Amino acid sequence: MAGPSAPDKGDKPDLLTAAIFVGLGALGLFMGWGLDPGSLAQMGPGFLPRVVCLLLIAVGLGVGIPALRRPAQAIEAVRLRPVLVITLAIVVFAYAATHLSFVLASLWLIVAGSLADPGGRWTHTLLLAVGLTVFGALVFVYGLGVQVPLWPV
Amino acid sequence: MKAFTALPLAAALSAGMASAALADWPTDRPIEMIVAFAPGGGTDIMLRTLAPFLEAELGTQFPVLNRPGASGEIAYTALSQARPDGHTVSSLNTPGFLTMRIDRKLRFDPAEICPIARIVEDPGTFIVQPDSEFQSLADVVAFAKENPGAVSVATTGMGTDEHLAMLQLEQAAGIDLTAVPFGGANEAKTALLGGHVTMIGLNVGEYATSDQDSFRALAQFSEERSTLAPDLPTAKELGYDVIMSSERGLAARCDVPEEIRTRLSQAVDAAIADPEFQGKAKQQGIPLSYQSGADWSAAMPARLERYTQIFQLIKQEQ
Amino acid sequence: MSFIDLLMLGFGEAMTLQNLSFCLLGALLGTLIGVLPGIGPTATIAVLLPITFFLPPLAGIIMLAGIYYGAQYGGTTTAVLVNLPGEASSVVTTLDGYQMAQQGRAGAALAVAALGSFFAGTVATFAIAVAGPTLSSFALSFGPAEYVSLMVFGLLAATILASGTVLKAIGMILIGLLLGMVGTDQSTGQDRLTFGAIELFDGIDFIVIAIGLFGFSEIIANLERSGSEGVTLAPISRLWPTRDDFRRSWAAVLRGTGVGTFLGLLPGGGATLASFSAYSFEKKMSKRPQDFGTGVVEGVAAPEAANNAAAQSSFIPLLTLGIPSNNMMAMMLSAFMIHGITPGPTVLANQPEIFWGLVASMWIGNALLVIINLPMIGLWVKLLTVPYRLLYPAILLFCCIGVYSMNNRIFDVMLAAGFGLVGYVFRKAKCEPGPLLLGFVLGPLLESNLRRTLLIEQGDPSIFVERPISLTMLIATVVLLGLMIFPAFRKSRQEAFQEEEG
């Protein structure tokens, strides 16, 4: 959706919106291509997905085309550190909880998650990690019966 | 997706120690019971009720692990990847376990999963409103002959027991019904009470525990009348060849040593013979019907054959 | 027996020391799990169900019911404090509640929510007592066709939730609908839009999307904006609502209660529809709709009253017909059946102490919740003074455990992390995630009922205008659409002109 935008034209957040809508609509159409739309009396699994995707693309264009002509507006600056660190912390937590144990996963999540925001004191982070892990073990694993191994085996 | 490669408890022992563990089985570690449905479902409640009795029988714990999804495929996949040391069992449900192989590519090999014991057999039944003009199955058939497609039957989805029963009835009576899928038995019941569908398919267990004044059952789809509904005729007695029941039980991997599987089967037999358990089962409307793993396995090919034929009917309809 | 006698019988049953204690226990436990994101009342009750074997029937059921409505109270707390809706019904509470917290008025938001919920709970409880059987026959008159019209209306009303442009909100609803279609098609058993992943066969769970879009992406956005040092709230001016807050919220509470009691009756999406219909309604009624989403007290009062009223009135179909209207009620049904009680007209006649005891305990439970929650507000608000550096890892942990505990699998946590990234991109594109969630919740209901209607009618859509309830709702939809489109067009054209000139 780059479009021919002069430097002072183009509402970037709206153009991004349009790109998301049109992109997801196209993805949905592509994925649902093989699904049978059926008839009105015997509606198949492909009927509504197709309708929704086409509407989504239409709405995307409706958002995007006027945005090209509006005065320029920038997207807020992206800082990668929190995005990457938080996501990585969560993903590793999931594997660790299943294969290692709740205690290790929880310690990892809090220590790694804290790195998203540099400048904290290590002692604080470690205390927090231990405290929350004990709390989580008591409340979730013992108290609420979450099915996860507590200790590494 | 490697999500299921190792269950935590099953991973506890290294492979080399497996044979040594056999001597201690089952008291050395808990036996994990994978349930293929979410907490609170019929299978889940039944197995949670049974677990303490099994624990008393075998002297070890039976923690329940819910692995819901894909009508059981997720749980069976998890079971087939567990260690074959007799410390992991799972719930087993038909017709789901049998029908999923017919038109779906599975992520586990059904031949690797062996039944331990059948606990429940719950026949299907068709229900109408209490003030319905249809007094019997014959009334429905007669009406449907006159008005093809006008009788709507609420099911809980394509290929479920009710749907398969409906297809058998269509074939047996030469009629045309309209299947209307609902999200579950309760949604279907609501639609029936509101008069939005003509008829719904339920299991006898669900019917027996519902308010009897709100529904009228027409027939049950078993070979013999269920203990829960001794007064309800079977479809066979009425002259329609419709057999459909859902079974629930336990299974383990086939390469678990046979003596362990037999021991588990005996333990289930003893547990469900306990009068206290039977009392609880009766309250919850669970039609107990024990079968040993061997007998259950032996009965499966014939059922599979029947279901495969019915699935051909679905294909033809489309 | 007269109504008063029955009510006295109920209070007599509910006020025994044993039943009171279990009511309190349930309410406390419910508050706890409501506060913990991801851990829902359904899972908790499933775990506790076997314990109720050993309790007398009424005590067990009272406790489980307490967990259910207690969780509604608790869910508000996280929605207001950290912008995390634990359940579909608290999505709209985040819109104004979180803004109020940012302005140092978290205490006022929580107090209004608690008092509004108590009032709504009281009214709905009495509605059950007085008109239960009548109301349930109304619920039954909702067939597939009526649902379709209701969902169309609901989806359109969802666009009012967003404070940005209508077009973007519609786009987000459509994305929600699309996400709701992921999984096995109910009618044909075919898997749709799953990328072949077996974990997606049953669709995506609401909690995964909510925690991703709200929980994770909020943390990322906060840290990105200014690091943890910069996440400071306005100083807490006062703990309690001002006279002005009360003046503005009482009518909202009344309307919310009405909407909630009514919609809570409907099986399936009823309770979810309740809170955001109440919000949309309030915004339409308001003289200053443009302020909604910036922290107005009515925006908290109306949906909170509605969701609590709906939580109570969703018991009506179960108690009077024996039919559970949602998963939660299905668990309650199991709890009854474990004790050999089959809810329905028969129980109402033969064992009135069960029905009336439960009804009375619900009112007592609501009163207990207010008594528990009002003093807790001070504590919760203190929580906001904890530095964000220490707070966000805790939120992160609770979210992760919550998502993991639903199906005990890695996949859900990964998916939630993915939705965290998606939510982050939405923020950059200035798209609000609220309408998406509602599209997601209502979409499957719309689709399955549309297909059912056309199956039953053999392809003839005229039923939608032939059935009076359905027709009424379709007319309301058209009117709402008209109200929305014309001012929106005028406004955006005016804006466009101003921008051109400027």
List the defining traits of the structure above.
heterotrimer, B: 318 residues, alpha/beta, D-Maltodextrin-Binding Protein, domain 2, 10-stranded mixed β-sheet, 10 strands, disordered N terminus, C: 502 residues, mainly alpha, two-stranded antiparallel ribbon, 21 helices, 2 strands, 1% strand, globular
Report on this model:
- The complex is a heterotrimer of chains A (153), B (318) and C (502).
- With 153 residues, chain A is mainly alpha-helical.
- Chain A folds into two domains: 12-69; 80-143, no CATH class.
- Chain A has five helices and no strands.
- Chain A has helices spanning 12-31, 47-69, 80-99, 102-114, 122-143.
- In chain A, helix 1 runs antiparallel to helix 2 (47-69), helix 3 (80-99) runs antiparallel to helix 4 (102-114) and helix 4 (102-114) packs antiparallel against helix 5 (122-143).
- Mean pLDDT of chain A is 85; it is low at 1-6.
- Chain B contains eleven helices and ten strands.
- Chain B has 318 residues and is an alpha/beta fold.
- Chain B has helices spanning 18-24, 42-58, 73-80, 96-99, 137-146, 161-173, 185-193, 204-208, 258-273, 275-283, 293-317, and strands at 32-35, 64-66, 88-94, 113-128, 152-155, 178-181, 199-203, 216-220, 245-253, 288-292.
- Chain B has two domains: 10-122 and 245-309, Bordetella uptake gene, domain 1 (D-Maltodextrin-Binding Protein, domain 2); 124-244, 3-Layer(aba) Sandwich (D-Maltodextrin-Binding Protein, domain 2).
- In chain B, strands 1, 2, 3, 4, 5, 6, 7, 8, 9 and 10 form a ten-stranded mixed β-sheet that branches.
- Chain B is globular.
- In chain B, helix 2 (42-58) crosses helix 9 (258-273).
- The radius of gyration of chain C is 22 Å and the shape is globular.
- Chain C has helices at residues 3-14, 17-35, 41-48, 57-82, 91-102, 106-140, 144-158, 166-181, 206-230, 243-264, 270-285, 298-313, 315-321, 327-338, 345-350, 352-383, 388-407, 410-428, 434-456, 463-466, 468-501; strands spanning 183-184, 191-192.
- Chain C has a two-stranded antiparallel ribbon with strand order 1-2.
- Chain C has one domain (3-229, 244-501).
- In chain C, helix 1 crosses helix 16 and helix 10 packs across helix 11.
- Chain C is built from 21 helices and two strands.
- By secondary structure, chain C is an all-alpha fold.
- Helix content of chain C is 75%, strand content 1%.
- The chains are: A mainly alpha (153), B alpha/beta (318), C mainly alpha (502).
- Chains A and C meet through helix 1, helix 2, helix 3, helix 4 and helix 5 of A and helix 8, helix 9, helix 17, helix 18 and helix 19 of C.
